[in-house]
Amino acid sequence: MASKTRDNLVYALVWLACFAPIPWLGWNLFNGDLGANPIEALIRQLGVWGLRFILISLAITPAARILRMPRLIRFRRTVGLFAFAYVLLHWTSYIGLDQIFDWGAIGKDILKRPFITIGMTAFVLLIPLAITSTNAAIRKLGPVRWRRLHRLIYVIAPLGVLHYYMLVKADHRPPLIYAAFLAVLLGWRIWDWARKANRKT
Amino acid sequence: MLIRNAGDLTENDVTPEPIYRRRREFMTGIAATGILAACSAPTEAAAAPLKAAPWPYSTPEPKTSFKDITSYNNFYEFGVDKDDPARNAGGLKTRPWTVKVDGHCAKPGTYNLEDVLKGHALQERIYRLRCVEGWSMVIPWIGIPLADILKRYQPTAKAKFVAFETLNRPSEMPGQRRAVLEWPYREGLRLDEAMHPLTLMAVGLYGQTLLNQNGAPMRLVVPWKYGFKSIKSIVRISFTETQPRTAWQVSAPQEYGFYSNVNPTVDHPRWSQATERRIGEFKRRKTLMFNGYNSVASLYRGMDLKKFY
Ligand code: HEM
Hints:
The structure holds two protein chains of two kinds. By secondary structure, chain A is an all-alpha fold. Chain A has helices spanning about 1-20, 20-30, 40-65, 75-100, 105-110, 115-130, 135-140, 145-150, 155-165, 175-200. Chain B is of the alpha+beta class. Chain B contains nine helices and 13 strands. Chain B is globular and about 45 Å long. The interface of A and B includes residues 102 and 173 of A.
C-alpha cells in the first residue's frame, strides 16, 4: 500500500513536470513576457516542447535499461502523450492564431513550404500513436502490431528535427544539438539490436 | 499609397508626449547639432534627445511602441534571437565613430561621424518597416536623406552602386564570435536607389538618438525593401562600379537577392510574403507592393522582379 501511494505520488510529479510548461507559457503570455511578437514566440515554444518530449520519450527505454530501472517504462506513455499534446497545440496555434483559419493560405503553406510539409507529416504520423495509446487499443492491436506501429516514432523524430533545421535562417546550432541527441538515442537502439542479433546467431 | 499632406499631422502625432514636452523646453534650431551634442554626452549607451523637422509625407498609421521597436530586433552581431540585441548591445562603444568613404568618388577619406552629419538638417519620418520574416512595424525615424550625404563625396560617373559595411568588432559584438553570417555585415544599393528621396540615413528614432540595438550611431532605412537591407552601425560607404556582395546573398543566394524589394507576389522559398503581422496587432494584414511606397516603381521599370528578387 505504501509503495502504491509512493508510486502515485511519483507519477503525479512526473505528470506535473510535463504539464508545467503550459501554465508557464500561459503566464508569460498573460504578462506580455513573450515579447513583441507573442504569437510567433508561443508557436515556437510549443514546437520546441513538442520536440523535447518526443526526445524524452525516446530516452526512457535506454535509460530504463542502462540504469536497470525497468519501472521507468511506465512513464513512456505519459511523456509520449504530452509530446503529442504540445505538437497539437503548436499546430492549433499556427492554424488559429498565426493564420486565423485562412485555409487557403494554410493549404498553400503545407504544400509549398517544405518545412511545413515535413512538420505536417510528422504531426499526422503522431496521430495514430496517440489514438492507440489506451489500454483497450493496445489489447486490441496485440503487442506485436502495437510495437510495430509505434516504431513510427523513429520516422517522426527525425522529421521533427528536420522541420526545425529547415526553418532556421542562419544559426543552425540549436537544431543540430537536438539532432545530436536524437542520433545518440537512435544509435543506442541500433547498437542494441545488433548486439541482440549477434547473440541469437 | 497613403500620402497625406502635412496638415493632417501635428507635432503630437510625430513624437511621444513626454519627449514632445521635453523638446519644447529647449527647442532652439533644427539641425544636426542635436546629434553632435549627443556625441559628447557623458554616458555611452543612453540616448539623447534629438530635434527634427516633421516630414510631410509620414504615414499616419499608429506607431509601434518604443518598447517593441527597441526590444524586438534582428541584429545578428549581438545574437540571433529577437531579444538578444537589446540584451547584448550595451557594451558597444559608438564614440568615437569614424566612417570610411572610398571607391569612385572625388572626396574619399576617413571621416568622423560628426563631419558626416554636420550641416545636414534632421527630419522626422514615420515609415513602415517590413521584415523578410513576415512582420512589420511603424517607426518614427530621425535622419538625413542619404542622397544629401552621398553627394558631398561627389560620386564619379563610374559609381553605379553604393556598398555599406557594419562595424566588425567581436569584442563588443558577441554575435560576431561565430560565423553565423560572413562578417562584417555588408549591404548595397544601386546608386539610383541610394539617391532616391525616400532613402534615409537614420541617427535616431522616437525623438532621441538610436539605441545600439537599433543600429547606433548611424544606419540606413530603405522603407520599400525588406528590413535586412537597412544596414546598421555603418562604418564604410564605398562607391562601386559592380554590384556589391551582400551578407544574406552570400549566406543563402537562392533565398535573398540583391534587390529584396518588398513584394507580396514573390515568396521567400520557405514562406509566403503575401501577408504580414504588424507588431502589436493580432490579425495578419496584406503586404503591399514596395511596402506601399509605389513612387519607387519607376526605378524598376522593365525589370522582371521575380528574377531580380
Ligand atoms: C512532430 C511535429 C512537430 C514538431 C516536433 C515541431 C517542432 C518545431 C520546432 C522545434 C520549431 C522551432 C522553434 C524555434 O525556432 O525555436 C517549430 C517551428 C514551427 N513549426 Fe513546427 N513542429 C511540428 C509540427 C508542425 C506542424 C504540423 C506545423 C504546421 C502545419 C508546424 C508549424 C511550424 C511553424 C509555422 C513554425 C515556425 C514559427 C515561426 O518561426 O514563426 N509545425 N516547430
